Amino acid sequence: MDDEFGHRVRQQFEDNRGSSELAMLQTPSSYELVQLKKAFAIMTPAEKQNAENLTDEQIQKIAADAEIDAGIFAIFINGYALQDKKTNS
Fold it and tell me: How far apart (Å, rounded) are the C-alpha atoms in residues 48 and 42?
């Protein structure tokens, strides 16, 4: 979202509150990327291997341990899980 293209993509997906969770998956901001890098840096190999199966509690714990926004992390993990199911179906 740090560029014009990303901004336009997010505007297309905005809801009535101005959020654009779906667009986050396609055009993450640099802030969101930093958050994700922090989370993945502390994840165990098993958590990375099975990210699509992480529970809400595990996502919250990883986010808390990485000191990042749990909502942002959950959106990306859930998006990954949906894509994984779609790909492996």
Answer: 10
